[in-house]
Amino acid sequence: MGGGAVVQQEPTPLTRHLRIREHRGHTVLEFRGEIDIAAAAEITPALDRVTGRPGARVVIDLRAVEFFDCSGLRLLYRARSRVLERGGRLHLVCTHPLTLRVFRVTGLSRLLPPQPSLDAALEQPEAASG
Prior knowledge:
single chain, Transcription Regulator spoIIAA, 5-stranded mixed β-sheet
């Protein structure tokens, strides 16, 4: 291969706050940095594209998130309902203690149990929809 072009396996960031990659047959949406209302507005179009596919298998990975507010929560609820409407699966990876506390307080962790790693998430049994 000439031309000095580097073949890049790592996808380019779509926005500062989102990277999308494939892992073991799942689409991984990796949220990054501070997820506030401005970041959520950047992320929504790509999130909707991924979660709009029939039978999508999606993992939202929050390990690179430093700050997460109610607009981030709305993104997760939106992703979950869109994926379940279309017969897909959604998993969540999160290790940040403050974000985990937000999930517990709001009840999101019952709907979307956070997993400590990508592999742990993908080993979960089929999540019941509804």
